[in-house]
UniProtKB/TrEMBL annotation, chain A:
GO terms for cellular component: plasma membrane. It is a multi-pass membrane protein. It comes from the Bacteria. The lineage of its organism: Bacteria, Pseudomonadati, Pseudomonadota, Alphaproteobacteria, Rhodobacterales. The gene is araQ_1. This is sn-glycerol-3-phosphate transport system permease protein UgpE.
Automatic annotation (TrEMBL), chain B:
It is a multi-pass membrane protein. Belongs to the binding-protein-dependent transport system permease family. Keywords: Cell inner membrane, Cell membrane, Membrane, Transmembrane, Transmembrane helix, Transport. It holds the Pfam family BPD_transp_1. Part of the ABC transporter complex UgpBAEC involved in sn-glycerol-3-phosphate (G3P) import. Probably responsible for the translocation of the substrate across the membrane. The chain crosses the membrane at residues 12-30, 71-96, 108-128, 156-180, 201-227, 267-287. This is sn-glycerol-3-phosphate transport system permease protein UgpA. The complex is composed of two ATP-binding proteins (UgpC), two transmembrane proteins (UgpA and UgpE) and a solute-binding protein (UgpB).
């Protein structure tokens, strides 16, 4: 009986196969743009500019990727990959570091101005960088931080999501632990390093995954402040590879670059799927 | 909620909170304040002085047909992106939920597009619909349909909507799938015993139980369409043709950086600030409700 009811809800037999067919179709449709980009990165320019282009990979894989990585169009893609890596890791590490410290201060201390600071941080939740680009650009230019890693990183870590996440988590740490630390005469920073940080490990990792992708995929900000091709990040650099006139874009190089641009975030998302989903759910709460 | 046990001292906590406060002040509060301040002035063409105009920039904007058109474009764009990313995601999640085994594999494959930056997604879709080399536009051509998003505003809108919605399908799928897995099996099985068929069960039981997730996703997808799709628009259409894909965020950029109209761009920033504020309030209100739910 129980099995029969089960059969009504989850599919068996022919229905099960149909379900799999639907699922596979869905995956194929979703994957098609990525597949096509990969194919385009393994054929010659001539194969592409005489449509329709092939749908199976060609034999130019090594040539195209070598060309993209070490020559590129304006600047070698390897340089852009490195810039993106510095930016993404910088944003993730920077944001996690300042948020851990400030959340610790807000949760474990009573000090003058605590509420003011708390609301100040809370307000930064609300405003994406896209909305305040012109004045932020002026500030960064005023500091001489155009075309620099600090210019790429700092304006994007001025937001409070991570602080709130850590605050919520610290509030769930049992009071007995802080009590015991105080009785033992442990200094606050000792408690922070020995108890709070190790306990936050999973949250830190989940947040790192989310922030890494956030940083890697930035477009508008690097577009504005990296006027020197040597400082371009890969996500914004792809658009710079298109010729401005009526010439044909060099599609194999552009598509090889697109594939290279998505490999690091895909590895992070797929490889750390569990942490990624946890981070996604946490940071949207 | 507050901690009962706290540490003493005020120097240390001030030091701990200082980095975040300094970064927020320099890169957030000062620029945001500047945006509000500049929105009240019109600089002269040489940038040497500026004239106080009060709310003049706002009055001008709200009566500017281009700005109004951009509002309408943004509304249409965000509604379409939300629908085109949520409906396929729900469909896929419902199918995946019917599988006992193997749904993990599909999930792993379906989350890929989330990792692809909007700007890169823009390049991928531009490649498929490119008027000269695009595969899909070529096949459309053989069917007798002449695809040209460079000239046709409607097609341009369609293309940026698909390219923006594509990566979001992954995101929505994850949330719908998790919500579906949380629907109690017993309720579904009871309905099955009573003879309710799949679609009936879906519309009368499952969909109402999904409503908190659906509402949450509606809000975050609208926020996404408003603020995070700049890369898609910039790579595919650059706001054209004839501003048919110029959403509000794109207009802040094009008026401020390309047109160098700082007063207007700042006023637009302030209007967007109000929009973000409203959306945040809606989101928080809803989350409070969900906690009680």
């Amino acid at each position: 009986m129980a099995r029969d009811i089960h059969g009504m809800v989850e599919k068996r037999g022919a229905g099960l196969w149909l379900t799999h067919v639907f699922m596979i179709l869905g995956v194929l449709v979703i994957f098609f743009p990525i597949w096509l980009a990969f194919v385009a990165s393994t054929v010659t320019q001539v194969d592409i500019i005489q449509p329709p282009m092939p749908v199976w990979p060609g034999d130019q894989f090594r040539i195209n990727y070598k060309n993209a990585l070490f020559s590129g169009v304006n600047v070698p893609v390897a340089t852009m990959l490195f810039n993106s890596l510095v930016m993404a890791v910088g944003i993730a590490v920077g944001k996690i570091a300042i948020s851990l410290l400030s959340a610790f201060a807000i949760v474990y201390f009573r000090f003058p101005g605590r509420n003011v600071f708390f609301w100040m941080i809370f307000l930064t939740l609300m405003l994406p960088v896209e909305v305040r680009i012109v004045p932020t650009f002026e500030v960064v230019a005023g500091f001489g931080m155009l075309n620099s890693y600090s210019g790429l990183i700092f304006p994007l870590i001025a937001s409070a999501t991570a602080t709130f996440l850590f605050r919520q988590f610290f509030l769930t740490i049992p009071d007995e632990l802080a009590e015991a630390a105080r009785v033992d005469g442990a200094r606050p920073m000792r408690f922070f390093w020995d108890i709070v940080v190790p306990m936050s490990r999973t949250n830190v990792a989940a947040l790192f995954v989310i922030l890494f992708i956030y940083g890697w995929n930035q477009y508008l900000w690097p577009l504005l402040i990296t006027t020197d091709p040597e400082m371009n990040t890969i996500v914004m650099g792809i658009k710079q590879m298109f010729p401005s006139g009526d010439d044909f874009a060099h599609w194999p190089t552009i598509m090889a670059t697109s594939i290279l641009a998505m490999i690091p975030p895909v590895i992070v998302v797929v490889g750390m799927q569990r942490l990624f989903i946890r981070g996604l759910v946490d940071s949207e709460k | 909620m507050e901690k009962r046990v706290t540490f003493r001292g005020w120097m240390l906590p001030l030091l701990l909170i200082a980095p975040q406060v300094v970064v927020s002040a320099v890169f957030f509060f000062y620029p945001a304040g500047q945006a509000i301040w500049q929105s009240l002035f019109i600089p002269d063409p040489f940038g040497l002085s500026s004239q106080f105009v009060g709310l003049g920039n706002f009055e001008f904007l709200l009566s500017d047909p281009f700005y109004r058109a951009s509002f309408a474009t943004t509304a249409i764009f965000s509604i379409l992106v939300t629908l085109c990313s949520m409906i396929p995601a729900l469909f896929l999640a419902v199918i995946a939920d019917r599988l006992i085994k193997g749904s993990g594999v599909y999930r792993t494959l379906l989350i890929w597009p989330y990792a692809v930056a909007p700007a890169v997604a823009g390049v991928l879709w531009l490649f498929m619909f490119n008027t000269r080399v695009g595969v899909i536009s070529w096949y459309l051509g053989t069917l007798g349909y002449d695809w040209n998003h460079v000239l046709n505003g409607g097609e341009a809108m369609g293309l940026v909507v698909i390219a923006s919605a594509w990566g979001r399908i992954s995101y929505n799928f994850l949330f719908f799938f998790a919500a579906l897995q949380a629907v109690p099996r017993s309720v579904i099985e009871a309905a099955a015993i009573d003879g309710a068929r799949f679609w009936r069960r879906f519309f009368t039981i499952v969909l109402p139980l999904l409503s908190p997730t659906t509402f949450f996703l509606l809000v975050v997808n609208v926020v996404y369409a408003f603020f995070e799709t700049f890369g898609v628009i910039h790579t595919i259409t650059a706001g054209g043709p004839q501003q048919s894909t110029t959403i509000l965020v794109y207009k802040v950029f094009s008026d401020g950086f390309v047109g160098q109209d700082l007063g207007s761009s700042s006023a637009q920033s302030v209007i967007l600030l109000i929009v973000v504020g409203l959306l945040t309030v809606i989101q928080f209100k809803f989350i409070e409700k969900r906690v009680h739910y």
